[in-house]
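INTERNAL AUDIT FORM
Audit reference: QA-55
Scope: verify that the stored structure record matches its stored sequence.
Auditor: D.O.
Record contents follow.
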Amino acid sequence: MPERLSAWEKEYRKVESLWGFKPDPILMEYADLVPKGKVLDLGIGEGRNSLPFAKIGYEVEGCDISPTAIKRCIAIAKKEKLKVKVEAKDLLKIDVTHEKYSLIIGAWVLNFFRKNEAVKIIKKIRNGLKKDGFVYIAVFSPDDPGCERAKRNLPAVEENTYYDREKNCYFHYFTKKEVLSPFTDFKLIHYSKGIELDLEHGKPHYHGFIEYVGQRVK
């Protein structure tokens, strides 16, 4: 399996903020429904999606493959006087405590694993949610322009999974079934898919996306 650390470190070191500071609107739309407790952000980056929960009393934990991202997240939390528990670690190597979290966030991170690796991480998410807890997943879909480019230029290693040797990174594009099937026993709170213009990082570009919010009911 290729080492992802150097690739993401390089990306974070290029700019002051890789993904911007605004949280995902869909996640915030349902924030009031999340029971008070612990939040786990997988691929926390600089904290844009989970630090807003720390501000309103949730206990935030997170991990990211990039030490630079983690340092920035800690610096922002310190500046805003927020308590967070974060570490630089590969998502495949983390242990998620059984039924511990009120919310687990997997935003725009699962795409950068092989399909079979992403399945393992999703199982950790299911296992870590307590009853009535929420999951938020945001991923790129096969409608993403990047998927067509990958089909033309990169070797396929699994269905809808491609490996970019130059970037030393995998790209997987999720179908609706791949997002929803692990959570068939959850209450569906939100599902959407489409193509949208991304102005938050880099040059303006389009993404095909899927966003899912579910609640564990048993």
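Auditor finding: record pair retrieved intact. The radius of gyration is 16 Å.
Action required: none
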